[in-house]
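Predict the assembly for these two chains.
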Amino acid sequence: MELLAVLCLPLLGFLLLALFGAKRVAPELNITISFATFIAASLLAVRVARHGPILVFHDQFFVDAFNVFLVALTAFVGLTTAIFSRPYMRIEELHGRLTPRRLRLYHAMYQLFMAAMFLALLTNNMGLLWVAMEAATLSTVLLVSLYRTRASLEAAWKYFILCGVGIAQALFGTILLYFAAEKALGSEGMTALLWTHLNAVKGQLEPRVLGLAFVFLLVGYGTKVGLAPLHNWLPDAHAEGPTPVSAVLSGLLLNVALYAVIRCKVLVEGSIGVALPSRMLMGFGLLTAVLASFFLWRQRDIKRLFGYSSIEHMGIITFAFGLGGPIANFAALLHMTVHSLTKSSIFFTAGHASQASGTQQMDGIRGLLGTSPTIGWGLMLGSLAILGMPPFGVFSSEFLILTTAMREHPGTTPLLLIALGVAFAAIFSRVQPMVFGDKEAQPLPHSPALVPVFVHLALVLMLGIYMPPALAEWYRVAARLIG
Amino acid sequence: MHLLHPFTVPVINVLNLLAACLLLLSFAMLSRRRTQRLITLFAWQGGILCLSTSLVAYSSGLHELYYSAALTLLLKVIALPLILRRLIYRLGAEWDSETMVNIPVTMLAGLMLVIFAFGLAQPISMMATTITRNMLGIALAVILLSFLMMITRRKAVTQVIGFLAMENGLFFAATSATYGMPMVIELGIALDVLVGVFILGLFFFQIREQFESLDLRNMENLKEE
């Protein structure tokens, strides 16, 4: 019931907003639908926490601790982003960058994107997972090019082609998976691609096929995670699209793509053992984190800067999943949560900061504290949180990842430390003059909704200082599922 | 449950022939510069896929596969070529051709890719049933060749045709190696492809409006400084 609501509410929202998205009330409608989805997702989470995993509609949908936590997070960030986007998009309209028709496209596609992500998270069918991931790409392509500038069109084209090629590799991987599954489960049409069924017989799946399948799946879905060397689309799409889209791409889509990789990893590990998948995840993760941290130095655009920071954090999370074991998985799940909360709040403030300064170039953004203290403090605290400063939750997860890496693979720790250190220096040296510095920014024509920023940061702070036992237990169960 | 009816030798021979044709068409696409020719070749690929799927459906007795053959016919032989042709007509890009491509070098690279694909598929071919021996290698080769086409071409429309040809290779892998994916998934994939082409169509107009050309060389400004 709740599951159906989570899937159908955004779809309903898509239809409604496709009709009425140009009206004045569209942003409020968007918020209402996102709120209803969030309620449904919370109820679903409570139910799974009380009664354990759910398997419904002829086993086509499956909810366990791992994906319900991502569903709740997705619905929450979806709601706060909708709240943030109301004044943000009004200001963009006042600045003449958007027309009511484009706003209709934006609102409708926003809900369609949410629907695609929920489908990807909740489906038990590896084929449908692929279809939903592709639908998530398609629904955001037109959002990236919403401003119709040369740069945004180029970014959207790159996004479409690179992710299209990536996702085609994932489809080949899925076909190989089906090929192996058919031998173990028989070709009874629908059931052979169901994750729960595959998970039950994963020991019997042909190892050679699954090894090859995993390579394709990792490269394919990894493109959407933003793993090097196929990460080029990410900073462009984040910088050129509207800020709410950057926030949900960074905070949610990357998580969902990583979720797909981890589901595949669980199956493959059951067949060929842990060595190959975990080494591949660790290798790609480290490469991504180190590469992205050095690219951070060369950025001039504030949203590109934080786009690269997302790549770096996705690298760290992938590395942690590669380490495996209860502690590293726990840390990776925690890091997914805090990264998504912190990064979306940073994008909220960065978006308003560039609106106030009239530019996304960091050289042009100065003295935010003087004009609008809330935006300034939001950006400062958000940056400190994402850089892993102690009281925030990012510190706890990064600390856990580092200590586990030191124990299990000591050789990797210097690289991790370099990535973290370089990223710290690069981001802090950029953010500091933007927040302090001389007063240059103009006050905004419409008061921004900064409640989401501080709610997110407060949650991240709470996760760093005190984690409710129920939540910790939940992470533990999810971490055990991943193995 | 695996093999409903074992394939007879003539059927396997015909399937092998069709697979070879598919690979040949991929090479033909690599060697063509004109967009219109590419669309024709793409439609031919769709025709081959439709034939091979029907043949597998006929000889395995899996009637579901007839639907997917019909879907291929509708989508890849009729609808997509028609949409693409109308699109380039409305964009006035009918006689566009790629001038910057070195065909002989691309062909050589393509040959290497085919060898690589067969090598990669070798261990799987060993354990496959007779029908799939060469098919998986050919399917992988078609995917890689389309990928090569996307890398070497500079026009937006051509890149999209390369993208669709890659999807053809994937479809061939699905039917030949596994007797087709479950129907729901095939429908989902078809829907994604169709929506993708529509979005790209919209996109072409936006790109031309902004850049006054569909040449992607204009779109190389987003780089690290």
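Chain B has a mean pLDDT of 83. Chain B has one domain: 10-218.
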